[in-house]
Design a protein that fits this description.
mainly alpha
């Protein structure tokens, strides 16, 4: 158990300093009159700034706009993404016979020296990364 904690400790420390600390520091600063341009002493303001914010009509307008954007994203963009992914999946399954004897090629940034291999992959003359005629591709194969 101790070895697991030792292995996770670097990630937890990075998370603590990069996420948790700034969140709690910002929360603490929200109760003061901190101004980085002014400097000097920080005075404790309590909930005064939150009360001022809740009384401001611009805050409520901005909150409404943010809720609309969140609702459109959750109930609009995500379902559309799932539907498009499903349609793409169905079309790939129908075309599976075409790719059955080749490794699937995902469009990645390709170096110009590999352009001939990419063109051969789409024209049907390339057998994928498991082609043993070239020793460069051999380490990627499980054969």
């Amino acid at each position: 158990m101790l070895i697991y904690l030792a292995m996770a400790a670097p990630a937890l420390i990075i998370y603590l300093f990069s996420v948790t600390y700034p969140v709690f520091y910002s929360l603490w600063l929200s109760f003061t009159d901190f101004n980085p341009n002014r400097g000097g002493n920080w005075n404790w303001m309590g909930f005064y700034q939150y009360r001022t914010m809740l009384e401001d009509p611009n805050f409520w307008h901005a909150l409404k706009n943010n809720l609309i954007v969140a609702a459109v994203s959750v109930f609009g963009q995500i379902p559309i993404g799932f539907i498009l992914a499903y349609l793409l999946y169905r079309s790939l399954v129908k075309a599976a016979n075409f790719f059955s004897n080749r490794c699937f090629f995902a469009p990645l940034p390709v170096d110009h020296r590999n352009r001939d291999d990419v063109e051969a992959a789409f024209s049907g003359g390339w057998t994928g990364i498991c082609d043993h005629s070239d020793t460069v591709r051999q380490p990627f194969c499980s054969v």
